[in-house]
Amino acid sequence: MSEPTKTELEAATFRRLLAHLDSRKDAQNIDMMNLAGFCRNCLSRWYQEEAEARGVEIDKEAAREVVYGMPYGEWKAKYQTEASDAQKAALEAGKSHD
């Protein structure tokens, strides 16, 4: 497979992941962290880091908007729910394994 084709496939896969996450606003970041060890905020941070590694300056909020599809504050107000004690405990327990 050529590098341009590989890059196109990776980009398409990333766009599909973002679309999937957009369709699953019920999947809270804490759930994603507890189950997979990453969340939407991680994706936005990785996006920002990769941009900066290539000399493209993008701030945290702009990177989050790429991943969330809207300003983070707006997404948070509309879709983020309060984490339960069980979710918080699972997150803390997972941190001890890092």
Number of strands: 0
CATH H level: which superfamily? Answer: SMc04008-like
Number of individual domains: 1
Give the N-to-C terminal Cα separation.
Answer: 35 Å
In CATH, the architecture is Orthogonal Bundle
**Helix-strand makeup class:** mainly alpha
* Largest sheet, strands/sense/barrel: none
Shape: globular
What share of residues are in beta strands? under 5%
Which fold does the CATH topology refer to? Answer: SMc04008-like fold
CATH class: Mainly Alpha
Residues in helix, %? over 70%
Average residue-wise pLDDT: 94
- The residue ranges in which pLDDT falls below 50 over 5 or more consecutive positions are none
Q: Can you tell me about this structure?
A:
This protein has 98 residues and is mostly helical. It has one domain (29-98): SMc04008-like (SMc04008-like fold, Orthogonal Bundle). The chain contains six helices and no strands. The protein has helices spanning 3-23, 29-36, 40-53, 60-68, 72-79, 85-95. α2 (29-36) packs parallel to α6 and α3 packs across α4. The relative contact order is 0.12. The mean pLDDT is 94. It holds the Pfam family DUF1244. It comes from Gymnodinialimonas ceratoperidinii. This is DUF1244 domain-containing protein. Residues 27-92 form the SMc04008-like domain. InterPro entries: SMc04008-like_domain.
